[in-house]
């Protein structure tokens, strides 16, 4: 047994990591995708139970969303007390530990190759549960995405995988979280690639699909196979409704732009103390909790009632506008709330209200209120997140009705275009990143370089050697026929020397000794002989080609030696990378 374990750790695991360095490691990525989905599914189950169990125990009536049945004193004090508690918790944390949600995941992908800490996951779990349980206007899907991405990233870090694989695992965790939350595996896949990664790759689809499917299976084993909402059979009654659908698309597009603008405006107070900002957010929530208690918590009970036509026009319009205002302001002030759930809530209520208006204008042709509520959900999600394909597939999976595709495509693309082109708004997540002074680089070149690790292109034909060698030692070093000699200095490798230059020097030395009848030199200084030496800088084995290029720019080195920590204070060098190697690889992959 011990021999088998040694074989696994010494041969199979390093081979597994080596395969993952490139872009063609589909079998290995598929295994990782399955593991990511299972782990994320279990984590999301724990997260949902942590929210639902105290609410079912604390709230009156059946279910875990009946905040409306609380007495007015409790409704007013609950969000304020919750905000104060959250503010105190976040105040005691370092600034980098306070960051949570999908925006944080995108930041870690863009600036830290997808490395997310366990501490970050714990903060997200606690704050995500607290925002919903204390009646803030919040969603659980944003925190769920962070948790899925974090635990998938931690799995990759524990296995010491290359950074390009950790990035893929983060995408798997995002897809699995959406799939587990809504029971919508297809939209989970598209969400991860369209919203978080902002790229589509053939190699990325396979592990992400497997992650979404395995997470859905885990949650279905507990909650059943029904989607998040109870949706009756929906269909468009008449083509004469298309002009009204375009009007609703305009209203949703304007509402989405207003929502993004309010989040951005409130976010300008990010330099204020976090305790003050969260407390103000909780204080602002009090009048909404008293007057419009439907805005408290996730609000999926209201969404279900809207879809089934159980809510009147003025209430739909009022709660839709109220949800838009309070959610945007509190999220902008720093409340660690999810945004996907509130987005669906706003879309359903505003769409349902417009559906009731349409029924008054065209009573014989108009479709059901639920039909317009579902269209509003997709339109608002697509416009706020600037993710039309993810929104369309979410609608398709939630309704399980292909008849909704045509009007859904029309309203989602139109509202998304109005928000982005008429009002110049980027997705909410990119807007928040920009307000924090960050950007998200998603050019084709950067994306291609991030998908490959230095281990995939490094030259392994190397030999480490001391600077001063005897002639005999130099000849012995060349018998292994290395391509490169890494010259050691007092603080590690200092220069890269082509082995052929040393061989040429030895030939010239032998010829000189024979012609001049002199003795061989006692030692050879590899930093003194004629050779095309290159300055060296280190790069970690897990690094992507993007990180390698950044290291070239930062160090002004002419070559990088690829190293990995194998023991405390011990680094093993695996190969070398030249900038020309990266350029050649990229050109080869493009051709």
UniProtKB/TrEMBL annotation:
It comes from the Bacteria. It is found in: Membrane. GO terms for molecular function: chloride channel activity. It is a multi-pass membrane protein. The keyword Transmembrane helix applies. One of its GO terms (cellular component) is chloride channel complex. The chain crosses the membrane at residues 25-51, 76-95, 116-135, 168-193, 200-222, 242-262, 274-292, 312-332, 344-363, 369-396, 403-424. Keywords: Chloride, Chloride channel, Ion channel, Ion transport, Membrane, Transmembrane, Transmembrane helix, Transport. This is Chloride channel protein. It comes from Marinobacter salinexigens.
């Amino acid at each position: 047994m011990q021999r088998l374990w040694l074989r696994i750790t010494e041969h199979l695991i390093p081979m597994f990591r080596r395969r993952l360095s490139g872009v063609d490691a589909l079998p290995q990525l598929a295994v990782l995708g399955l593991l990511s989905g299972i782990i994320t599914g279990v984590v999301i189950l724990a997260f949902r139970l942590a929210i639902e169990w105290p609410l079912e125990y604390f709230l009156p009536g059946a279910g875990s969303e009946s905040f409306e049945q609380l007495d007015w004193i409790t409704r007013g004090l609950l969000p304020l007390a919750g905000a104060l508690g959250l503010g105190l918790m976040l105040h005691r944390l370092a600034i980098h530990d306070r960051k949570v949600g999908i925006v944080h995941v995108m930041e870690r992908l863009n600036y830290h190759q997808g490395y997310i800490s366990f501490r970050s996951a714990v903060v997200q779990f606690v704050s995500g549960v607290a925002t919903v349980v204390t009646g803030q206007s919040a969603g659980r899907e944003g925190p769920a995405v962070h948790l899925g991405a974090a635990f998938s990233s931690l799995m990759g870090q524990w296995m010491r995988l290359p950074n390009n694989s950790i990035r893929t695992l983060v995408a798997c965790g995002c897809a699995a979280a959406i799939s587990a939350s809504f029971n919508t595996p297809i939209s989970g896949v598209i969400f991860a690639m369209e919203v978080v990664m902002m790229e589509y790759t053939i190699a990325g689809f396979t592990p992400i699909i497997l992650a979404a499917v395995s997470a859905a299976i885990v949650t279905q084993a507990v909650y059943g196979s029904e989607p998040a909402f109870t949706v009756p059979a929906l269909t468009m009654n008449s083509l004469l409704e298309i002009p009204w659908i375009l009007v609703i698309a305009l209203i949703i597009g304007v509402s989405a732009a207003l929502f993004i603008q309010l989040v951005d405006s409130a976010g300008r107070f990010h330099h204020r103390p976090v305790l003050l900002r969260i407390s103000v957010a909780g204080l602002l929530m009090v009048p909404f909790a008293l007057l419009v208690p439907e805005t408290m918590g996730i609000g999926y009970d209201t969404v279900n009632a809207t879809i089934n036509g159980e809510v009147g026009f003025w209430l739909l319009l009022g709660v839709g506008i109220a949800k838009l205002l309070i959610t945007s302001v509190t999220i902008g002030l720093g409340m660690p709330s999810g945004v996907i759930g509130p987005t669906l809530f706003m879309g359903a209520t505003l769409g349902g209200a417009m559906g009731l208006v349409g029924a008054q204008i065209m009573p014989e042709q108009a479709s059901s209120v639920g039909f317009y509520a579902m269209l509003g959900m997709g339109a608002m999600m697509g416009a706020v997140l600037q993710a039309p394909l993810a929104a369309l597939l979410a609608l398709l999976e939630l309704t399980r009705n292909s008849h909704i595709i045509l009007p859904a495509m029309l309203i989602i693309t139109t509202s998304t275009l109005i928000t982005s082109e008429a009002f110049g708004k980027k997705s909410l997540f990119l807007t928040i990143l920009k307000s924090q002074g960050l950007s998200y680089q998603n050019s084709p070149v950067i994306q291609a370089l991030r998908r490959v690790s230095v281990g995939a292109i490094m030259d392994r034909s190397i030999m480490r050697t001391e600077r001063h060698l005897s002639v005999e030692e130099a000849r012995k070093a060349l018998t292994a026929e290395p391509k490169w000699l890494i010259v050691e200095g007092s603080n590690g490798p200092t220069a890269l020397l082509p082995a052929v230059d040393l061989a040429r020097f030895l030939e010239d030395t032998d010829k000189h000794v024979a012609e001049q009848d002199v003795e061989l030199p006692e030692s050879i200084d590899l930093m003194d002989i004629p050779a095309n030496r290159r300055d060296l800088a280190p790069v970690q084995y897990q690094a992507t080609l993007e990180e390698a290029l950044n290291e070239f720019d930062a160090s002004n080195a002419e070559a990088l030696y690829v190293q990995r920590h194998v023991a405390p204070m011990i680094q093993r060098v695996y190969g070398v990378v030249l900038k020309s190697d990266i350029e050649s690889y990229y050109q080869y992959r493009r051709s």
